[in-house]
Amino acid sequence: MSTQFDHIENMSSIGRDSTVMENNMSEDHYNNWPNDKGFDPKYEQRDPVELSVAGQIPAYAAGVLYRTGPGKSQLQADNGETLRLSHWFDGFGQTHRFQIFAPENSHTSPRVFYNSRFSTDDLIEHVRKTGSLDEISFGQKRDPCRSVLGKVQTEYVPQQTPSSSNISVTLSINVPGLDPKPDELTSRWGDSQGIRTLYAKTDYNAFKKLDPETLEPIGLASQIILHPELSGQVSASHARSDPITGDMFNYNLTLGSTCTYRVFGVSASTGKTTILATFPATPAYLHSLLITEDHVVLCVWNAHINPQLLDSSFMDSILPTDPSQPAVWYVIDRKHGKGLIATYESPAFFCFHTVNAWLEPSKENPAEVDIVADIVRTDNSKFLQYVYYENLISSLDTAHTFQKKRDDSFRTSFTRFRLPAVPSTPCTDPKKAVVEWSLCKSLSPELPTMNPKRVTEKHRYVYAVTFRGEATLTDGIMKLDCDTQQVQLWACHGQSPGEPIFVANPEGNSEDDGVLLSVVLDGMRGKSYLLCLNARNLSELGRANVDGAVGFGFHGQHVPTTQTTYVFLTTKSPLHTLPLSTLQPQLIAQEQEGTTIVTTEMLAKSHGFNEPTFPCKKISLTIHSSLEALDLIAAITNRLKDHGISTNVVSGYFHDHIYVPIARAEDAMRVLEEVAAEARG
Ligand SMILES: [Fe+2]
To answer: Which GO terms describe its molecular function (predicted)?
Structure first.
């Protein structure tokens, strides 16, 4: 098992410039906006506890919200010294889990449970004993004396365990290709709970497997498992997934005398990994990438790496942005095996987070297709200097000084690029990418999110946290309407929010019909809460209070519980008089006696159909409908019948759907699990 950036794994150590930080500690918090407790949380809650809830959280937000990111930033070593990390990205990871249960009826409140787990216990224990961090570092500042000591200490290399690897930037459930033998049959039940595995990822080629409920680190994996050619050290924390197929896309970068990118895709249905393109290019720190319906878009922006410098720290290897060097956009075909089909160049910039990309007819020639790409951009990679603890912790004089001298080069903006006239066959001549607009620099947005259903389609709304400068870290949640360029802001003094995750209202008709879930530190109380905002106007709907400070994390994922109730309704009204566009029928059957419509209970009632029948749960078989599936359907319905569960089977062209009475839905799922287990033998 490789460690993060193998060739620098022997670096030492935890910085001893911490005394400077201690001496600079002041009672004053920058702008009276305390955030210290978010950078060195002591609070761990291994067993789920119920949180007190104020206000309301909509039923459709029921499910699990996972969060991960840095936890502890300092340790007491056995030799009595306090060891402090210097870069926020190196914080010892912690994972959080909020489980939201829908209200049982309109008169009850939602219930929210919380548990968390530090995810690097073995690494922390090693550091305590040795007083040194031999493992990787993103940006640890080193004491030269400790460097020498570190080289001696590396003769002892601790055994890699899941909790000795600090991997805690992004989280993914059910990562394609990683489970040695995917449970194919159970994965076919489209409406099952759905969380089979949970993985943490980072900007190198490793994955950490976590127990989805206890969050205990239980395994390590490498991209080499996906494909033997994926042996390079560097990758993106933010792999991209197709919103329809679930196929996952990322890159793997091999550092060496020649640096090689391999852009790859993993099929969600087969687990097979395909190398889509292999090409040499300037090595760079690329935290995210983009996909369109037909492409993977890898932009090598201007955080170029000098691999020769990697024996000190990854930060040290990232070169200052050279404005004379273009950013280069590589466009790779992901559907037809055409490989790298185009490159585009744009003026130099730096980016952590892409937002979305999609295809549009070219403005100048509608017969051609452009790629439109939205990202969060800064002028250069200096932003990486911002996120040292000494610049972030509100009580540190160094942070006060940094904020006062912080200039526009540390500010981000939403930027829309256009890559005109994407060729359909490989083209070697570089083309020009153009900036269409750049917005919100005064708000300095980061950690962008959007309605995930819009991935690879044109989106209208994007959400983010703000770094306006009111606080040393985040100081608000914003929403940008890309069409009107209007901005909305949620901000409360002393409240430091994390990434706002959008959860769509499944009954909603507009892109922003949903809620934002964000873990916020109340700096005044020193405790955190899960905030639920109406995504339309950023008004607060409710919050669930945590009895401790949740560390400022990076990213998370919300996995909804599928509890939609469907109903069958009948009407004698002519079809053309029915409000079908808003009733959103799952099924329409016209018979001599009348018309039957299957839709959700909520939509039926909102349209005045107050006496629908057969309240039921829909179980979709995600295999393609076919004659071969008939035997499977018959076996399932017979087994359900044996258990006294009535069914109504509906076959679309693509899939088969089984409607079972809502009261027997859980029983039905258990029966399906039995069928799946028997099929596995
Ligand atoms: Fe990120």
So the answer is: carotenoid dioxygenase activity; metal ion binding
